[in-house]
Specification:
Elements: H1 5-34, H2 41-45, H3 48-81, H4 88-94, H5 97-100, H6 103-114, H7 119-126, H8 138-162, H9 166-174, H10 179-207, H11 211-216, H12 225-234, H13 239-261, H14 285-315, H15 318-323, H16 325-360, H17 367-379, H18 382-385, H19 388-399, H20 409-447, H21 451-479, H22 483-486, H23 496-505, H24 509-539
Length: 540
């Protein structure tokens, strides 16, 4: 037992308070939906309109998952066969960029390349084809989901391939195995172990997609459940329909999460002599040409929309936009919400982590302690079960009788963004804290250092870096989010993403491009500061 009784009490109390607060915030929103006095709701839940929306939601998610996974496989295989070439490290880092890029900015970049006035249609028009590509509707949704999810899948596949023992490649070379045999006996088994989990994750992300479908959906024929909920309240003000869709959305996400829980965990253990990995295959000119073409095409697919954002943004009058009252007010609102959201996310994550540590420190944990530890572990993923639009809908209906909902909107958006950021903040902080405790817990206990003295002398100097990293990432995520503010956006509450979306909706694309570039620069600055803080924290 490395913690004092007081430290265990404080840790468990903080975790319980966080758990109760999150459960109440989400539970009240869900209860407001379920208890809303609307006799038409059951009929709306099982209507032909709802069935059509559900069918499209699942269909586009399935297609997006299929294309993302199938296109990511050759990319990962090519990168795995080419472990050393000029620029490889930057290409792998580039694949992490869409995951941290605000979805709204990525959508604008795709419109710049594939839209009606985009580069691809402009090129095809010079060849005599009149606007042959439309980015709106199902085609645009699939393209955008592949843009964001292909890099995620490729990176995860690449990690699985690079974990294969070096002896496998040495043996394949000594046996003179052909490429097809290498794929069959070495690469395919490694990929098959991770494909279900990766596909399930991408399907979940696509089924709950909001911003991409809102911008690229192209009308009622291409609308998902989350967008339909937003439209039912924002444009039609049809609470029964919104409630029916929200209940259906919770049921769908619950079923998906339950299915993901039954997927087998990948077995990453291998018996190996510890040799450095060196591959001997893929040395023919045909293999080099295929790998080079695959990597180049993927790089262009990712780089061109990002370049389009930059080029379109610098053509706008950035100084006029940056000094305009609309931008300054939106920036102040966004940064205030982002800071509050980030501080809440870090505080809640620290409370949950320390509570789990305290319960593991118990000599004889009972069923109550084990159950509480399990609930704390699942709390950070609660937003996956009840998406932000559903939470916002519940609070919107609950607070509407009390007057203008926009008065409560900043606090609601901050808490919803906190829930969205919590899984990412936990992934940054929990490994750092666990590693730090393994190195210092026994020594601190043997020296009798605890409480505030331990925090000031031992914990804070090391953990300040990871905490600032988590804070910057949570703030960047909140800054770029459109989903939480979509229901509450108004002249009284305008964030930077909402300002960009409003300019885009009013066909002021030049201003939208400039504002998107400014938003992207702010998010990038926060991400860079977080990376520097992480490096400083670990090096210290």
């Amino acid at each position: 037992m490395l913690l004092t009784a007081a430290e265990r009490r404080r840790g468990i109390s903080g975790g319980v308070i966080s758990l109760v607060a999150i459960a109440l915030f989400v539970g009240i929103a869900v209860s407001a939906l379920l208890l809303w006095d609307a006799p038409e709701t059951p009929g709306r839940l099982f209507s032909a309109y709802t069935a059509r929306i559900l069918q499209f939601t699942l269909w586009q998610a399935a297609l997006s998952t299929l294309f993302s996974v199938c296109l990511a496989l050759p990319v990962a295989l090519s990168l795995a066969r080419r472990p050393r070439f000029v620029g490889r490290v930057w290409i792998v880092r580039l694949m992490a960029l869409p995951m941290g890029l605000p979805v709204l900015i990525g959508a604008l970049g795709l419109i710049g390349i594939w839209g009606r006035q985009g580069a691809v249609n402009g090129l095809l028009s010079t060849l005599g084809l009149e606007q042959p590509i439309s980015i709106y509707g199902l085609n645009g949704i699939l393209l955008a989901h592949v843009f964001f999810n292909l890099p995620l899948a490729a990176r995860l596949f690449l990690v699985a391939l690079e974990r294969q023992p070096a002896e496998y490649w040495l043996l394949s070379s000594s046996l003179g195995m052909k490429p097809l045999s290498i794929f069959r006996f070495i690469e395919a088994p490694a990929l098959i172990r991770v494909v279900p989990g990766i596909a399930g994750l991408i399907f979940m992300l696509c089924a709950t997609s909001f911003t991409l479908v809102l911008i690229l959906g192209g009308g009622p024929a291409a609308t998902t459940l989350e967008v339909a909920i937003y439209q039912s309240l924002r444009f039609d003000f049809d609470p029964p329909r919104a409630i029916g869709l929200a209940v259906l959305q919770i049921a769908v996400t619950g079923l998906i999460l339950a299915a993901l829980a039954f997927l087998p965990a990948p077995d990453g253990t291998h018996v190996t002599a510890g040799r450095a990995t060196r591959r001997f295959d893929g040395r023919t000119w045909g293999a080099r040409l295929w790998d080079g073409s695959t990597i180049l095409a993927t790089t262009l697919f990712l780089v061109l929309p990002l370049a389009s954002i930059f080029l379109a943004g610098i053509k706008a009058d950035l100084w006029r936009l940056a000094s305009s009252p609309a931008f300054l007010n939106a920036a102040y609102t966004s940064l205030s919400i982002a800071l509050l959201s980030g501080l809440l996310a870090v505080s809640v994550a620290l409370a949950i982590i320390h509570a789990r540590i305290a319960m593991r420190d118990l000599r004889h944990p009972g069923m109550l302690a084990r159950g509480l530890a399990a609930m704390l572990g699942a709390t950070s993923s609660l937003v996956l079960l009840v998406p932000p639009v559903v939470i916002g809908t519940g609070w919107f209906l609950l607070l509407r009788p009390f007057g203008d909902v926009s008065r409560f909107a900043p606090a609601l958006v901050a808490v919803i963004n906190m829930l969205m950021a919590l899984p990412f903040v936990m992934r940054v902080l929990e490994p750092a804290i666990e590693d730090h405790r393994r190195q210092t817990a026994r020594l601190a206990a043997s020296l009798g250092i605890s409480g505030f003295s331990r925090l000031r002398r031992i914990d804070l100097p090391f953990l300040i870096g990871p905490v600032l990293t988590a804070l910057s990432f949570a703030m960047a995520l909140s800054l770029g989010d459109l989903g939480a503010v979509a229901l509450f956006g108004s002249t009284e509450l305008t964030t930077l993403p909402w300002l960009v979306y409003s300019r885009l909706s009013s066909y002021r694309t030049n201003d939208a491009d400039g504002l998107a570039l400014l938003l992207g620069m702010i998010c990038l600055a926060l991400t860079i500061l977080g990376s520097l803080s992480r490096r400083k924290g670990y090096d210290g």
